[in-house]
Design goal:
Blueprint (H helix, E strand, L loop, with lengths): L8 H17 L13 H25 L4 H29 L5 H14 L3 H4 L13 H19 L5 H18 L11 H7 L3 H14 L4 H4 L4 H15 L3 H17 L6 H4 L2 H8 L1 H19 L4 H33 L7 H7 L2 E2 L2 E2 L11
Antiparallel strand pairs: 1-2
């Protein structure tokens, strides 16, 4: 896994965002495979866990440490501008267009949590009505991962300490999800914080550590590893197999497309149109809810397929505008914040020339890109 860019990841991001839009297009939670849209968020998480870990390990190996100020500056430049613009738009809509009532009041009461990426800890999810900006919980989980994980990777030159720390987080989340901590912790803030640990992020990070250690590379390097992982994921969704199995397949899928660039899914994941959807997936995630809501008002709640198709096309269009107006102008600044490698091999990789011109070869490794 020596390449500085993983070309299939935008395709995986497209594979992640489409089920999310479908989920928002349905008039109510559906049974069976049609109700598995939230798995798209888990795939985003697995991508984030794998790639953030990979880039942190590369930086640590290349320069001897992880520059925390640069890491957080890059995350801030990449994630915050569009997030707060969209949140601000939701605030304006609530102020001037949404009718007074419990939904509006709940949104304003939850606004400090949305503004500080703590909605998964402090928003009251037990209310009997819809929750405005509910999708922000996943971005909160991502930000909390960014807040903690770079410090852990930076603390050791080896892989054992990060692996043990991530395994502990994974174990805590699984124990909480299975009710094993109910007798130890009350259902208060501590329990909410533990339950907000995202298992797919943990599995993605552990997969990256396993690849770096040479434990998983051989098994993921076979050209059929990517489609095999995808098949397990699809079957898990269709037959409602244990969620942990689906999440493990996601981590394996991400690792497989990164370890072996010429995997069997390359023609699909590296299709130009598919990659574009993945490239603007952060904007789609933030903006698809109001676009889908508008489609429902025009077409009717029960015309699910039509709402989905119109909502997806509209979300891609609006997200593309947001990408070129907000996100892309900041990419050059983010590239200047990337660490310059100090090892000879890493410098050669970083200075690689593609298509006759210098360009950044490292991927943007998270839900936000």
């Amino acid at each position: 896994m020596d390449g500085r860019r993983f070309n299939s990841l935008d395709g995986l991001r497209a594979l992640s965002i489409v089920p999310v839009v479908w989920h928002h297009a349905t008039p109510r939670p559906l049974e069976g495979v049609l109700g598995r849209g939230p798995l798209g968020v888990d795939l985003f998480f697995a991508i984030s866990g794998f790639l953030i870990t990979t880039l942190l390990l590369r930086e640590r190996d290349d320069s001897g440490t992880v520059s925390l100020p640069r890491f957080y500056a890059r995350r801030t430049v990449r994630i915050f501008p569009l997030y707060y613009l969209v949140l601000g738009a939701f605030v304006l809509h609530a102020l001037f267009a949404r009718e007074h009532g419990p939904v509006r009041d709940h949104f304003f009461a939850s606004l400090p949590a949305h503004a500080t990426y703590t909605s998964n800890w402090f928003v009251d999810w037990s209310v009997p009505h819809g929750i405005v900006f509910a999708f922000g919980w996943s971005l909160a989980a991502e930000e909390q991962f960014y807040l903690v994980w770079p410090w852990i990777v930076r603390a050791s030159r080896g892989l054992v300490f990060p692996a043990l720390a991530m395994a502990l987080l994974f174990g805590l989340d699984q124990a909480a999800e299975r009710g094993m901590l109910d007798g130890v912790l009350a259902s208060g803030l501590a329990m909410r914080m533990i339950r907000s640990i995202a298992t797919p992020i943990c599995l993605g990070a552990l997969c990256a550590l396993g690849v770096r250690a040479g434990v998983l590379g051989a098994s993921l390097r076979h050209r059929a590893s990517a489609p095999a992982s995808l098949l397990v994921l699809v079957l898990s969704a269709v037959y409602a197999w244990p969620l942990l199995l689906a999440q493990t397949a996601m981590a394996a899928l991400v690792g497989a497309v990164c370890v072996r660039p010429d995997h069997l899914l390359t023609p699909v994941l590296e299709n130009k149109a598919v990659r574009h959807v993945g490239a603007v997936s952060y904007g789609i995630y933030l903006l698809n809810v109001p676009v889908v809501a508008a489609a429902k008002r025009v077409l009717g709640d029960e015309r699910t397929l039509a709402v989905f198709l119109v909502g997806l096309a509209g979300s891609v269009a609006v997200a593309t505008i947001a990408y070129y107006a907000v996100e892309r102008p900041l990419l050059a600044l983010r590239e200047r914040l990337r660490p310059r490698p100090t090892s000879t091999r890493a410098r050669l990789e970083d200075d690689h020339v593609v298509d006759g011109s210098r360009r950044a070869l490292s991927p943007a490794p998270d839900l936000a890109d």
